[in-house]
Amino acid sequence: MTRQQISNTADTDRWRLPDRLTVDGATIAAGVFGDGPPVVLVHGTPSSSYLWRAVIPRLAEQNTVYVWDLPGYGDSPPVPGEPVAIRTHARVLARLVEDWGLERPVLVGHDIGAATVLRAHLVEGVPVRRIALLDAAVLSPWVTPVAQHMQRHLDVYRTMPTHIFQRITEAHLDTATRRRLPSSVAEAYLGPFAGASGQQRYLDQVQYFDERDTLEVVDKLGTVKVPVQILWGADDEWLDRSFADDLAGRIPGARATLVPGAGHFLAEDEPDLVAQALAEFLTKNEPFV
């Protein structure tokens, strides 16, 4: 695999993962940064590996950081014949860990990416060293009211004029962060959903938000036997901060930390704080209790 230059990771216009891997008949966009113990970053929705661009350099100082686009997101097409769903993402992650030859990597997941890493570990059986969960879409109800409305009226949204749908996605993205995104950054998130094909892509993702995919995960949270860190945007408008303590209470030894000044996309609002918290978590030597 190609080791992308760390110095390019924060460049909005140049963000593109260099590798293409074949997993279950799907092409997965991926990239590797740095050198050291393995850490796998898993983004959520509606985003891609682009979310991690400002976090990667700090983590790559002492770790080998693996990033990828979920099937149906970023530069990864959907897995043929499979829904764009958490259960699919978790199976693909399990295969990637095997194909990369990783032994007990640290898994870091945001939003549905958090559900993906937990399902990969607890259901697919991926051995891990540690787990970090950021604004995790795990405990019900994690499907937001906006997404629920789209699911109930998919036929309306699929036939909606594209310029109207674009306004809706722009307004929704505005609530993902506490700070207003620069126009170039907002475009990087919204670009994949532009036009008629982008509109269908967005709705294909929303269609398969399924809390049944996380029920089995929630049932197994008490069996986690590795250190778990939970980071949550203190001003998250999509998933209330109360989820952080609830999730921590269900995982033995887990610690929840609120990130001040951050919304749901906390790696956009406070990338330095997130990177510092993750770097410290990765290097802690205290035994798991």
From TrEMBL:
Q: Which InterPro entries match?
A: AB_hydrolase_1 (IPR000073), AB_hydrolase_fold (IPR029058), AB_hydrolase_sf (IPR050266), Epox_hydrolase-like (IPR000639)
Q: Does the keyword Lipid biosynthesis apply?
A: no
Please indicate if the UniProt record lists Nucleus as a keyword.
Answer: no
Alphabetical GO CC annotations of the entry are: membrane
Q: Domain AB hydrolase-1, which positions?
A: 39-277
The molecular function terms of the Gene Ontology recorded here are: hydrolase activity
Q: What is the name listed in the Swiss-Prot or TrEMBL entry for this protein?
A: Alpha/beta hydrolase
Question: What is one Pfam family matched by this protein?
Answer: Abhydrolase_6
Keywords, alphabetical:
Hydrolase
